[in-house]
Design a protein that fits this description.
The protein is 41% helix and 14% strand. The protein is α/β, with parallel strands linked by helices and 471 residues long. α2 (59-68) crosses α4. The longest helix is centred in the N-terminal third of the chain and has 23 residues, at 101-123. The relative contact order is 0.07.
């Protein structure tokens, strides 16, 4: 067996370099023993490369490997090298075979890593520590996988203006207000056990706890018990659960004095939103049969963009070219949208772009397919996918293009032309803004009207530029 060790077991660059050398030397997977963290104290010499050009490796595999390497399973290096060997030795379509043991295992790892990242974002609690040169906020977290380097940029964006340290057993992250640095792992004793604000936070948490909506099993799924020891509010949970039934009975006995707050369609859809990473959601959405739009459509058109985008742009529904390409905003309206983004100073690749409805609805006219607006039932059937996309990305803001997207986010009373181009605050604290859909501009008959409307559209999109430029 040829022994290969890695100093950083989750680093794609290091694994890729050694896997490439093994591949070029023709070393078969079953003759390699991988060790992470410098397990062997040194590598066995890798044979020299054989003659011939280096094989091409799909970018999708590298993206998959980058996430799988963060998983804690010690088999990950060997499985990934076996997949790489198969991809370059006659199985080019391997990644498309979801039932393959290696592919299914890798996607399961990705799902577990993404869920771990989501939990870190949700359950990290920074505590204030006073030092000689000011204040530092320190958090302790125990993830299942090596995700600190992947999640730390999220906290940089969220807490740019404060100095903080994120401590985990495997490695640490430190932000001094200007530079992000990583260090070795720490212990729970290195983190503070509390701060002066925690009593205030517990008071707030207790006041917003609604016993009528208590579902203990669902709460434990979303906030697993293993995280409770690091959450200041967790000490209240047993008592709040115990008293939930008497409190609920007392609430029912009282007469209602405040009208129920209106819930937007998107908020309703959150309860039915599927679980899983964006990759898993995209895969599951291909098989969606919640309405009949899938029958004549070519394919599902899912969202596209960075999984950690600060802004999610929501359109209405795919058109003819989007249906054929399987990507949002690539037709005439998409080209106009890209042009307006450029004039507003907004890079499209910084945005996650999706639609309220994921299938193309049309009426055949000879060889042409004429766009038809999705009805209320079809919009409602697709809304859980949109809710799930937003839940996985956790953006700072939403931008709605067109009335269908705006009313999904703000409610049916929203008036697009009256309220466009201004940031509004949603119930969850997130900001949202609406403007016209670019297809509206293409339909305007008069050239002068179109130019004026396009200029206003660019001004609306410039709000995105300002948002991205702010910390």
């Amino acid at each position: 067996m040829l022994r290969v060790s890695l100093d950083d077991a989750s680093d794609l660059g290091e694994w890729r370099g050694k896997a490439r050398a093994l591949l070029l030397a023709g070393v078969a997977p079953d003759t390699v023993e991988w060790g992470g963290g410098g397990l062997f104290g040194g590598d066995d010499p890798i044979p020299p490369p054989r003659e011939g050009a280096a094989p091409a490796v799909p970018r999708d595999f590298l993206n998959l490997a980058n996430t799988v390497l963060a998983h804690s399973d010690p088999r990950r290096h060997a499985v990934l090298y076996r997949m790489l060997w198969r991809l370059t030795h006659g199985e080019k379509g391997l990644l498309a075979i979801a039932t393959d043991d290696d592919v299914a295992w890798a996607h399961a790892c990705v799902k577990q890593v993404n869920r771990d990242m989501h939990k870190m974002k949700a359950f990290v609690r920074f505590r204030e520590v006073t030092v000689d040169d000011g204040t530092v906020y320190v958090a302790w977290f125990e993830p299942d996988h090596d995700i600190v380097t992947r999640v730390a940029p999220f906290f940089v964006r969220r807490f740019t203006g404060m100095r903080w340290s994120l401590l985990t057993p495997s490695r640490t992250a430190h932000w001094d207000g200007e530079k992000l640095a990583f260090g070795p792992g720490a212990s729970r004793a290195d983190a503070p056990s509390g701060d002066a604000l925690e009593d205030l936070w517990r008071t707030y948490y207790s006041s917003i706890f609604n016993p009528a909506r208590l579902k203990v099993d669902a709460m434990k799924r979303e906030m697993p018990v293993k995280y409770w020891k690091n959450l200041p509010e967790a000490s209240l949970i047993p008592e709040l659960v115990r008293d939930a039934l008497p409190r609920m009975q007392a609430m029912v006995a009282k007469e209602a004095t405040v009208p129920r707050k209106k819930v937007t369609p998107l908020q309703k859809a959150i309860e039915a939103a599927p679980e899983g990473s964006l990759t898993a959601l995209r895969r599951e959405a291909r098989e969606c049969r919640a309405c009949d739009l899938w029958k004549p459509a070519t394919q599902t058109v899912f969202g596209e963009g960075p999984a950690d985008a600060r802004i999610v742009v929501i359109g209405e529904q795919p058109g003819d070219q989007e249906d054929l390409a399987g990507k949002p905003f690539v037709g005439p309206a998409g080209k106009l949208f890209d042009q307006a983004l450029g004039e507003a100073g907004v890079p499209r690749d910084a945005l996650y772009v999706t639609n309220t409805v994921k299938h193309f609805k049309f009426e055949p006219r000879g060889k042409r397919r004429l766009h038809q607006r999705a009805n209320a039932e079809e919009q409602a059937a697709c809304r859980p996918w949109l809710a799930a996309e937003i839940d996985r990305i956790q953006p700072d803001a939403l931008v709605c293009l067109g009335a269908m997207a705006a009313q999904a986010v703000f409610g049916s009373s929203f008036r697009l032309m009256e309220q466009r181009g201004q940031w509004l605050t949603l119930a969850d604290g997130r900001r949202a803004m609406a403007t016209v859909h670019p297809s509206y501009l293409l339909r305007l008959p008069a050239h002068e009207d179109r130019d004026a409307a396009y200029a206003q559209f660019v001004r609306d999109l410039s709000l995105i530029h300002e948002m991205l430029a702010s910390p």
